[in-house]
Design a protein that fits this description.
Number of domains: 1
Helix content: over 70%
Number of helices: 5
Distance between the termini: 14 Å
Number of strands: 0
Order of helices and strands: HHHHH
Radius of gyration: 16 Å
Strand content: under 5%
Structural class: mainly alpha
Length: 139
Amino acid sequence: MTGTVIIYFLAAFAAYFVASFALGAIWHLTLFKKAYETAASDFLLSDPIFKIGFAAITLNGIAMLAAFSFAYPLGPPTIVWAITILAVIWTPHFVAIMATVAKYNIADRTKYLTLEAAFSLANIVVLGLVLRAIFTALR
């Protein structure tokens, strides 16, 4: 890879990390904090462990970068291209949420699943737009 390509891939990772963390923090700790508290108060920590969140975003970012690196030669980065790759990456996240709902005592399972499904969709769309812009600039 050339130096320029590496810079774009690192920029994509940084954009993914920042956008993912910002969206997650705003979603879970501001916009829908009360909804999560009522849906799963016995399940959620009152103070999230941000180090684990950073690790999760980093691992997901590495997976995203690998997927985009593989798909990059396949053609121009359309929004469908970006969202499809992110949907593949985020599907295991939602499957894990479903497993969590099946295993733990969550007061309002439907509300919790709805919140997490909406978050996953928002994440896929927002990050798809961000990453498409970066990979379009790379071309």
